[in-house]
Specification:
By secondary structure, the chain is α/β, with parallel strands linked by helices. The chain contains 12 helices and 8 strands. One of its GO terms (biological process) is methylation.
Length: 259
């Protein structure tokens, strides 16, 4: 299952590499504005961006650090993104699995992973790897879509995410992430939970072109319960079609407490 999921990630992100590099949903957000303030980068810091995608974290962080390693499981995605980041000479590109990072222990002052961890089949391995490669006292910033604590709402969310994008593994809840952090020596210093609005048509067509699949996703949303529509804040057009909905996004910064 893990290998299948990672192959799906490579397939999806190879096919839609430019869609993610140019996605305004990923390029904007309050979290990007908070990023520099939270991690307090210095000109001596070496940073790592895990699953860089369109490179939005790199754009923010590169001007403030000595060097930054942009990694991604998908070579085609990384190759494409590099063409948008030519103004930053201190960026190094490495094809890397977030659950098996090709770096030595205690290498990085700053590690960031933004809107990607829900694609990782084994989030516990990912967190273990983060702790391994970050220096003692180093900062780890995680930003990702998170599921509701209510199991039925969480199931609804993970179902529509995987229908739209087969490379989706699972969006964890905040409590699940906090448990993984605590179990792996990462102490949360700051956190911020917000609602992120997603225009439905832009969201669904970013990874789906087949009209049959788009119709299936639309039908799934149409059959949502009142509780599901309320939690995800459906905004419907006059004709009943879904215009937009909202997901929870969690931003947390932790420091590594090596013993």
């Amino acid at each position: 299952m893990t290998a299948d999921k990672k192959n799906q990630v490579k397939s999806i992100f190879s096919t839609y590499a430019d869609a993610y590099a140019t996605s305004q949903t990923h390029a904007k957000g309050e979290d990007l504005e908070k990023l520099i303030e939270w991690v307090s980068p210095s000109s001596k810091d070496v940073a790592l961006d895990i699953a860089t995608g369109g490179g939005n974290v790199v754009k923010k962080l590169a001007p403030f650090v000595s060097s930054i390693f942009a990694t991604d499981l998908t070579k085609d995605m990384l190759q494409n993104t590099s063409t948008y980041l030519t103004e930053f000479p201190n960026v190094h590109y490495v094809v890397a699995d977030a659950e098996e990072l090709p770096f030595l222990d205690r290498t990085f002052d700053i590690v960031v992973c933004r809107i990607a961890a829900h694609h990782f089949p084994s989030p516990e391995k990912f967190v273990q790897e983060v702790f391994r490669v970050v220096k003692p006292g180093g900062r780890f910033l995680l930003i990702d879509n998170v599921s509701p604590e209510d199991p039925s709402l969480a199931h609804f969310m993970n179902t529509f995410e995987e229908m739209r994008d087969p490379s989706h593994a699972k969006a964890l809840s905040v409590l699940e992430w906090k448990r993984l952090f605590q179990e792996n020596g990462l102490e949360i210093e700051k956190e911020f939970l917000s609602k992120k609005e997603l225009p439905f048509q832009n969201w669904v067509t970013r990874t789906v072109e087949d009209e049959t699949k788009i119709s299936a996703v639309s039908a799934f949303f149409s059959n949502a319960s009142p509780a599901e529509k309320k939690y995800f804040q459906f905004h419907e057009q006059e004709n009943g079609d879904l215009a937009s909905f909202k997901l929870d996004q969690w931003m947390a910064m932790a420091t590594a407490k090596h013993t």
